[in-house]
Amino acid sequence: MRNDDVVLVDRALADDETAFTMLVEKYQKQVHTLAWRTIGDFHIAQDITQETFLKAHRKLGSLKDSHRFSGWINAIATRCCLAWFRERHLNSELSKNMNIALEHNDPYSGYLVREQAKEAAQELREIVKKWLAKLRESERIVVTLHYFDGMSCEKIATFLGVTTNTIKSRLNRARQRLKDHEPSGQSTLDDFQTFATLNEASNERNIKINFDATTENGKKSGQGSASLIKKDALLRFSSFSFGWEGDGPFEHMSIALCGTAITPLLLRFPTVIGDTWHQEGFWNSQAQTTLEEYKQVEVPAGIFPTCLKHKSVFLDTDPHSQNNLLVISNGERYAPSNREMSPYVNGVRYLWFAEGVGLVKMRYEHSNGNTTEVELMEYKTPGKTEEYLPLQIGSTYTYQSISTYLCEPVTEKWRVTENF
C-alpha cells in the first residue's frame, strides 16, 4: 500500500494528473470522514475535503517522505478544519452578533462583538509573534508587507530596491525556515491571512520603532526602541527603551522620538481640525493637545503642502499622578526627578504630520527658554496611504535635531520593525 503511494506521488510530481486523481480517490473518504468528525457538518466537510486536496496538489513537492502521504494529507485536512474554525466560524458568529446588535440598536452587543474579535486576534497575535521571531529581519518585512498589508511582490521589490525574484526568494526562505523550526511551520503563512483578517476586525496593531542617534561628528550617542498601540480610535505609546553612550543627558540621543513620546496619547481618530483633548504627560506634566490646522511645511526631505499641525501645551500637575508609559534606560526603569525634567518637558510642542509620510517637523519651546527644532532629512515608505502617521513596517526616517541646549546637531534614524 505504501509503495503504491510512493509510485503515485512520484508520477504526480512528474505532472501525471491521473496519478494524483488516483490519490484523491484513494484518500477522499478518509479525509472527508476526518473533516466531518471535526466540523460536524457533512456539506462543509465536503468543501474542506476539496480544499485539502487542492492544497496537497500545490504543496506535493514539499512532501519529503512519500511513504507518509496518508499522515501528511490528514495533517493538511486538520489545518483546514482549524482555519475554518478560526475564520469562517468566527466570522459567522461575529456577523450573527453584529446583526443582533444592529437589529436591537444595542451598543453593548456591539461592544461584545468587538471584544470577541479582539480576543481572537490577540490569541493569534502571540502565535504570529513567535513565528515572526524565527525569521531574519529582511524576511520578516517581506512577510508582513505581503500577508498583512496585501502588497504584491512587485510593489515590495520597488520599495526595497531589489528584484521581484529576490522578494519571492525571501518569501520561500521564510516558508522553509518556519517549516524547519516547527511541525506546523508549513501552514504558518497560510494562517497569517486568517490572523490579518481577525486583526483588521479588532482594529488594533502593535508597532515598534528602532532608532539610532549620532552627533554631527559621527559619534554614536545612543540607540533604543519605542512601542505603540494603534486602535480604531487612537494611537498611543506603550513603552520606550533606550541606552546612551558618554556623559551627556539622554536628550542628546533621542530628541525626535522622545519629544514625540512625551504625550503617550499621540493621535485620536478620525483626525479633525479643532479637536482638543487633555492627558497626563511625561514626568507629571499635564498636556492639552489641539489639532490646529493644515499647513504647508518645507524641510530637507521635501515640500509637504497639507501637513496636520499638532500643538501640545505642557504644565505641571499633581506630583502623585502617573501615566502608563514604561521607560527603560540601559536596562533599568528610568525615573529622573520631576524638578530635573520639568524645564525640558513643560512648554509648547508643535508637531507637523504629512499625509502618507508621518512626522516631518517638530518645534519644542521649553519653559526654560530653550528651543528644539527637528526636521525630516529623508524617508522611505512602502506604499501609499492617507494616514498622517502610517508607520508601515520597513519604513525608514532620518531626522536632524538642533537645540539651544545641545552643543551640536544630532542625527536620528528611525526604522519601523513591527506593525501587525
What does this structure look like?
With 420 residues, the chain is of the alpha+beta class. The chain has 2 domains: 2-105, RNA polymerase sigma factor, region 2, helix turn helix motif (Rna Polymerase Sigma Factor, Chain: A); 205-419, no CATH class. Helix content is 44%, strand content 29%. The protein has 11 helices and 14 strands. It has helices spanning 2-13, 17-39, 42-59, 69-104, 107-133, 137-148, 153-160, 164-181, 188-202, 255-261, 338-345; strands at 205-215, 220-230, 234-244, 265-268, 276-280, 285-299, 302-316, 326-329, 332-333, 347-354, 358-366, 371-380, 396-403, 410-419. Strands 1, 2, 3, 4, 5, 6, 7, 8, 9, 10, 11, 12, 13 and 14 form a 14-stranded mixed β-sheet that branches. A hairpin with a 3-residue loop joins strand 2 and strand 3. Helix 5 packs antiparallel against helix 9 (188-202). The longest helix has 36 residues, at 69-104. It is elongated. The chain starts with a helix and ends with a strand. The model is unreliable at 249-253 (pLDDT under 50).
